[in-house]
Amino acid sequence: MSQVRQAMARRSAAALAIAVVAISTACAGRMERALLERFFELSRLRDKTALAPIATVVFEPFEDGIVDEFDVVRVAPEERSGSGQSEIAAKEVTVEADVRGQDGKTVKKRLIVTMQRPANGETPAWKITGVAAFPQSPS
C-alpha cells in the first residue's frame, strides 16, 4: 500500500474512533437520566405511592430541596454482592444538580445516587435506594 493510502486509512480510522467515542458518550447515562427525572419529579410531589416501584427513598422537598435541573456526570460500573437468589447488582450515579431550597435560593449540589436491582434477572428494573448530597465548592 502506498504511503498516501496508509495515511488516508489512518485518518479514517482516527475519525471512526472519534465518532464511536462521541456516540458512546452521548448514550452513557441515558437510562439513569430517565429514572432520575422520574424520581426527582415524584419526589417534588411527595408521591410515595408512585415512587414505590422506582425507589425506596424520597428526595424530600422540605428537607433536601427540589431538583430543578441536573446532569449525569458519571455512572460507576455495576458491582455485585451476595450470592444465588440474593445476589444484588448496584451502581452509583453522580449527578450535578441545581437544588432549590425552601428559601427559594438555588444551590449547586453534587448528588451520589445509589441504584440497585436483583442480579438474577427476575426484575431487571433499577431502583433508587439512596441519595447523598454534597454542596459544591465554589469555582
Describe the structure.
- The chain has 139 residues and is an alpha+beta fold.
- It has a single domain (31-135), classed as Nuclear Transport Factor 2, Chain: A, CATH 3.10.450.
- It is 32% helix and 35% strand.
- It is built from 3 helices and 5 strands.
- It has helices at 3-27, 30-45, 48-51, and strands at residues 66-75, 79-81, 88-100, 106-118, 127-135.
- Strands 1, 2, 3, 4 and 5 form a 5-stranded antiparallel β-sheet that branches.
- A hairpin with a 5-residue loop joins strand 3 and strand 4.
- The longest helix has 25 residues, at 3-27.
- The protein is flat, with a radius of gyration of 20 Å.
- The chain starts with a helix and ends with a strand.
List keywords for this structure.
139 residues, Nuclear Transport Factor 2, Chain: A, single chain, 5-stranded antiparallel beta sheet, alpha+beta
Number of domains: 1
Mean pLDDT metric: 83
The chain-level structural class is: alpha+beta
Count of discrete alpha- or pi-helical segments spanning 4 or more residues: 3
Give the SSE order as H and E letters: HHHEEEEE
Rg, please?
20 Å
Uncertain runs with pLDDT below 50, 5 residues or more? 13-27
Biggest sheet architecture? 5 strands, antiparallel
**What gap, in angstroms, lies between the N and C termini?**
52 Å
The shape is flat
Give the proportion of residues in helices: 25-40%
Q: How many E-type strands?
A: 5
Q: What is the CATH class name?
A: Alpha Beta
Return the CATH topology.
Nuclear Transport Factor 2, Chain: A
Q: What is the strand content?
A: 25-35%
From the coordinates shown, what is the CATH architecture? Answer: Roll
